[in-house]
Amino acid sequence: NYRCKEKYPYKNISDELLGQSFMPRSLYGSYLRDLYETNLENNSRFMHVKENVLALELKGNLQMLKTNSQQISVDKTVLATGNALPGNHVVPKGLISDKRYHQNPWNIDFSKIPTSKPLVIIGNGLSMVDTVMELRNRKFDQHIYAVSPNGFNILPHRQFNFNYDGPLKNNPDQFTLKELLRLYNTEQKKLKTFGISAEPLVDVLRPFTQSIWKKMTSEEKKTFMKKLRHLWGQARHRLPFVSYDFIQKEQISEKLSIVAGKLTDFQSDENELSVTIHHKTNKKTSTVNCSAVINCTGPETNYRKIEGNLIGHLISDGILCQDSLFLGIEADDQFRTLDGDSNTHNIYALGPLLKGKLWESTAVNELRIQAERLAEIISRDAEVA
Question: Do the beta carbons of residue 88 and residue 103 sit within 8 Å?
């Protein structure tokens, strides 16, 4: 329970209740920061340099990291950059420079958002839910529009007390994508007969998703990205029931609209901002006079589209190679990044950068395992040297 018991409103809450409750993701960030600072307080071998790395150059077997104020020569580099910001391609180009457009949903001064007009969120996932809840906590009472290409409703976590024991349980990575989809649909229909959702199937598949992805052919991956990605995302990323209940009440009370569509145009001056939404269902457009537009579409993974991004520069320089689906960068099974000729340069990658290789590479347990394995690899190499 970390130290949330030292903080309001968790101070006098039982461990059992806390263990079953949905905590804000920002609290988990505080937990990680606390662990980081505590473990490094007396570590004289560690130096934290608070600067942006602007460039990386290869110097024989070494790498030269360049910041605004210095150059640092290193034997090995680990790229653990986390998620990039959401991509700006989902909004009309001119809107990007408007101060009422917020690309980063995690860095907003909500007190500066006017409460007299509706608000538009682009995206319909967990970040959207977090943002809506934060807005309501801060007494924003206007209508909120959540616009996404498909407008899928987020599903809740349910407790069925049911352990699936069907054919998907044993080595589902042995199937082709077509076979797996056919079997999944068959099993889903069986569960639906008894009022059970597909959640147990997702839970069974989840430990195998990296293996399933790695065994897919290039064509299967393309098919998945085109036809199944959003459906899997809906089934995979479910809400704690308390959060789901909150969003349902918002929709029932007509304070939140989930819209299938996209932003196609905008009009703005110093005092007004209006956006045009093209609706997928009826092909019509509507205009919303709004107080702000918040981008909650999730991280951009095509690093060439991100201005001033180190990873994008390294791809342009040929030191890194973007995967063919623009999900991350190429790397081998030892986390070593590959250049355009499949050569390695003692540069390693963790987390979201490996999405193209592993598909699932952002959950806490996956990051923990990757970090532990990479630490072992680097330590072993150091002992050999």
Answer: yes
